[in-house]
Structures are given as C-alpha cells and as structure tokens.
Amino acid sequence: MSHTGTGAQSRPQRHAAAPGGTERAGGTGPGSGNGTLPVDRTGPVSGGGPGPEALPEAVPAPAPAPSPTAATSATASAGAGRRRGRERPRLYAIDALRLTAALMVAVHHYVGTYRVDKPHNPIWDQRASHMMPTVFRLAAYGWVGVEIFFVISGFVICMSCWDRRPRDFFVSRVIRLYPAYWFGVVFTTAVLTALPAVWPRPSIRQMVFNLSMLQSGAKIGSVDSVYWTLWSELRFYLVFLVVVATGLTYRKVVVFCCVWGTLAALAPVSGFPALQLLADRDSTWYFIAGLALYLMHRFGPDLLLWGILAMSWVMASDELGRRIVHEGVSSWRGAMILFTLFLLVMVGVAVGWTDRLQWKWLATAGSLTYPFYLIHYAAGTTAIHYLHDRADPRVLVVSVLAAALLLSYGVHQLVERPLARSLKRGLTGAFDRLGSPPG
C-alpha cells in the first residue's frame, strides 16, 4: 500500500467522450440506531489505504475516442473504456477535499449542532451559539461534508475499480474499511465505558455486532452514530459490484447511473423495503454525481454527463432540505451554496484544472481522513465535556481536532497499514484456493 504521490507528470491529451464505451435523523449520537466519510488510495494493484475510498496512485489515461462507426461496435465500446495508456498525475486535490470535508463534519459536531446549542447540554454545559457565535454560524453548515464525502466516494470507487475483477473489488473494500473501523469501535467503546458522562456505555453485545459494520441493517445501535454513513457506503458497493462484475465501460456506468437514480426516485413510494434499502434516496444521487464526474475525468465531459450531474444537483436540493429540518441550525440556501461550490471544484478536478496541484503532503493528510472520522465524535465530545472549564472554547476545539488527527496518524501507521497487508494476503490466498482445481 502506497501513500505518497507519484509526482507531477505530464498530462495526456484529453479526448471526446466515448459514445459507447454526521448526524442523521434518528441518529443524534453514539448508540443511536443509525450509527461519513468513508475513498481507495491503493489503486488497481495494491488495494489498501486510508479512508473508505482512497485514491489510486495514478489512473491510466484513456485511449483516443473511437470513431462514430467504431463506437457502435461492442468491442470498440468496451476497448475505449478499458485500454490502458499513459498515467495521469495523482489527484491531490481529492485528498485536500476529503480532509476538508472531515474537518467540516468534526467542527460541526463539536460546535455547530442543535445538540450543543441547548442550554446545559452535556458537552459544553451552555449554548455554543452564546460562547462562539461566529464559529457556531459557520460550523452549523459542516454537516454538508457528509454529502461531499459521498460524491468523492462515487468518483474514487469508479476510478479505482476500472479494469478490476470483482474479487479485487471485494478485497480492496475489506482492507480499506475494516482495519481502522475495528480500532474505532474498540477505542470508542473503551472511552465510553470509562467516561460515560456524555454518551451511554455500549453493551458488549452491541460492540461485538458493530464489528461487522452491519448493525444499521440489523437495527442494532451503533457504538458511535457517525457509523451510519458506512451503511450507505456498503450498499453502494453492493449495487455497484454488479457493474464491476460485467466490466466497467462508459456506457455501462451511464446506464447504471440512470437506472439506479430512477429506482431511488421511485423507492420512497414503491412500498418495497428491498428497493428502499438498495436505492436510498438520501445518498444515491451523491454517489451518482461522483460517478458522472469520474466519467468526465476519464472520457471528457459531454451533454449526457452534464445532464446526470445536473439531475444529481436537483435531487440534492431535496435531500439537503430534509436534512435542514433535522439539523435545525442552518438554512437551505446556505447549504445549497456550499454544496454547489463543492461540485464546481469537483468539476475542476474532473476536467484537469487542479492537475498542477502536486503537494505530496496532501497524500498523508488524506490518509488520516477515515480514521479521523471514525474516532472524532464520541471521544472528542467526551474530551470537551471534561475540559471545557479549563480552556478557551476555541483553543479547546482546535486542540481536540489536533489530538484526533495525531491519533489518526498513529492508527493509520500502526493499525491500518499492517493489518491491511495481512488481510490482503489472506483474502487473496482464499480466493486463489476457490479458483484452483479440486483435489
């Protein structure tokens, strides 16, 4: 698993698109039933790294677009999306966006939620809007970082899965998600067991089942409510695996976006729980936006991809509105402006405007995003509870963020990387045995 960039490389000539080719409602804290974040930094070969999805070191440049005649051929269509070419530079801008989104969510949890703005709340013991009015007004929009995570996830999952087998996809997801997550569950359980002043002590049964990452589906409370986003990620992986199994092409991913988006729009009124489970209207269109942005990055933008991205933006306006009702501390207009600005930055990433950003330290910063997200909330708010009378609130928030980032670096180096290597060897060997002749 590699965590540094490949360095600046000359960008290949772009071509036209190949025609053929935080807190959530019901989950207001640790122990809630709904229990961000998490992308794949390892790429097609290594398969491990920081964050639910992390960036491959480099992405193969697409082959030149086929002629209209050739594009009608199934062979040409598949080849346009699968042939390997020169490598592009690492997308350090994605690392920067991931870390920014994680910090947005953390500051929101510490200073900008309705929970911390209640009188005599267990975190600050006074209203955050009275202690830090300006910080509170800004932090109130930090929950949009979750939606940003989902868009980035769609982009990077599509990028890291191109030309990969289903088994590679499965292995990369396991070694990406579980090592840091297991640490987060055990660490948070230990903190809440020793210091239950803010959140209730998790039961042993709850902790053990949380290790599966399936607690939301089983209606068992999460040790830390921020885990709800991982349930959304898992469902996205399961659905997208169907396309990965057939081999990713421009056409297949576009069709997937259209079909999955339609199902997500119909799911709430369908009366089919299975459809509502696999096409969740609260996250589906964010993942679709990321997929469309990656197709722009790989093949170049076209009217169809712009249309998918525009529809994602429209559907996001509805989801953001529903989140506003739950959060109760921010406005729909402000959330839409923030999300729109992020989408514009992602368009810049997709079309290559940020390729000159080659700050290699961003790769390390991005690697902290996933463990940071997993450990920041319950443990961080508990720390604030015990320390808020001893320091200026602004200094305390910065200190807790810094401590969480430092711990995240240790988790990444001492837990994620070695455990991911061991898991990869074991899972690869197991799949090799499955594919070997009997005897």
TrEMBL record:
<keyword id="KW-0472">Membrane</keyword>
<feature type="compositionally biased region" description="Polar residues">
    <location>
        <begin position="1"/>
        <end position="11"/>
    </location>
</feature>
<dbReference type="GO" id="GO:0016747">
    <property type="term" value="F:acyltransferase activity, transferring groups other than amino-acyl groups"/>
</dbReference>
<dbReference type="Pfam" id="PF01757">
    <property type="entry name" value="Acyl_transf_3"/>
</dbReference>
<feature type="region of interest" description="Disordered">
    <location>
        <begin position="1"/>
        <end position="85"/>
    </location>
</feature>
<feature type="compositionally biased region" description="Low complexity">
    <location>
        <begin position="68"/>
        <end position="80"/>
    </location>
</feature>
<feature type="transmembrane region" description="Helical">
    <location>
        <begin position="234"/>
        <end position="250"/>
    </location>
</feature>
<feature type="transmembrane region" description="Helical">
    <location>
        <begin position="257"/>
        <end position="279"/>
    </location>
</feature>
<feature type="transmembrane region" description="Helical">
    <location>
        <begin position="285"/>
        <end position="314"/>
    </location>
</feature>
<keyword id="KW-0012">Acyltransferase</keyword>
<feature type="transmembrane region" description="Helical">
    <location>
        <begin position="395"/>
        <end position="415"/>
    </location>
</feature>
<protein>
    <submittedName>
        <fullName>Peptidoglycan/LPS O-acetylase OafA/YrhL, contains acyltransferase and SGNH-hydrolase domains</fullName>
    </submittedName>
</protein>
<dbReference type="InterPro" id="IPR050879">
    <property type="entry name" value="Acyltransferase_3"/>
</dbReference>
<feature type="domain" description="Acyltransferase 3">
    <location>
        <begin position="92"/>
        <end position="410"/>
    </location>
</feature>
<keyword id="KW-0378">Hydrolase</keyword>
<feature type="transmembrane region" description="Helical">
    <location>
        <begin position="91"/>
        <end position="111"/>
    </location>
</feature>
<dbReference type="InterPro" id="IPR002656">
    <property type="entry name" value="Acyl_transf_3_dom"/>
</dbReference>
<keyword id="KW-0808">Transferase</keyword>
<keyword id="KW-0812">Transmembrane</keyword>
<dbReference type="GO" id="GO:0016787">
    <property type="term" value="F:hydrolase activity"/>
</dbReference>
<feature type="transmembrane region" description="Helical">
    <location>
        <begin position="180"/>
        <end position="199"/>
    </location>
</feature>
<dbReference type="GO" id="GO:0009103">
    <property type="term" value="P:lipopolysaccharide biosynthetic process"/>
</dbReference>
<feature type="transmembrane region" description="Helical">
    <location>
        <begin position="335"/>
        <end position="353"/>
    </location>
</feature>
<keyword id="KW-1133">Transmembrane helix</keyword>
<dbReference type="GO" id="GO:0016020">
    <property type="term" value="C:membrane"/>
</dbReference>
<feature type="compositionally biased region" description="Gly residues">
    <location>
        <begin position="23"/>
        <end position="34"/>
    </location>
</feature>
<feature type="transmembrane region" description="Helical">
    <location>
        <begin position="140"/>
        <end position="159"/>
    </location>
</feature>
